[in-house]
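Table S2 (text version). Query chain:
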Amino acid sequence: MKRIIPLIFFLTPFLSVNNLYSQSFLPSTLKKDTVLNIKRFAIVNASSLLGLVGSYYFINTAWWADSKKSFHFDGGSTNFKDAFNIGLGRDAKYAKQLDKLGHFYSGRIISDLYVRAVRWSGKSEEQSLIWGGILGTTVHGFVEIKDGYSPTWGFSMYDFMSGTLGSFYPYFQSKSNFLKAVDIKYSYYPKNSHYYDFINRKGNDFFDDYMNATIWFTFNPKRYKPKSKWPKWLGISAGIGVDETLNNYYLRMPGGIADYGKGGYEFYVAPDIDFEGLLPKKPFWQNLGHVLNYIKFPTPAIRFSKDSKFMPMHF
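Corresponding structure-token output:
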């Protein structure tokens, strides 16, 4: 996930050329417009290319400037049949698979940006959702191919598959009333500094600090049953994280490879704020609410773990 998130920061200013897309998928006035605007479509493609070039430069200098290897899959093998072998490499145990949810989450956001941009160019709603899935998958493929030449990583089929599922999630949402009510969100708060203290690497950042991150799946009953009396701004969320014993992705681990996979899960149940339901039904506010819904804002929560407890506020 740590190499995908910077891509979002690079792609956002290039692809956010409009603010049309909302959780209802598009304003009704725009659903009727399906005439492709060649100039806008060209802007979308050129902006995407600029974003990818910029992110390539950033990732290449931030993580892979030291050395490169020939193309290989996670675990070091160059044989395609080993690409799905979970017994090789660190991928099957990396961050106790929380990074797979991270790739799903980032795929969903990248796809969302592309859907908005492609719809702005005049493509239909369904076409835009399909394009978003394809282009989001392409971005993940781009990163994984680069990982394949990295000295410390490798092409991960499971990261790629997780990113692909996330990229097509907005399309799946458009086909399911239940999924329209389900969001995936992210929260981060530095509860401990083990990640920063342990890794001695230039440019440490929070993208890989899974001990302080939580991935959430939220459900809004009002979206699922619009005629219900449930508050439209209130959702129910279930979160997953890992505790402070996670150390499987730290370099120079005290126990070496024997430490891979250590760490316990933490599960959370909490209320959630749906900002699209909370903010006024004006285009600006609805689009702001759509973006704010990428993040799980702090609320009281119950944690289920080796140290289960009620938390008056969980970040």
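Notes on Table S2: Residues 38-62 form the longest helix (25 residues). The radius of gyration is 20 Å.
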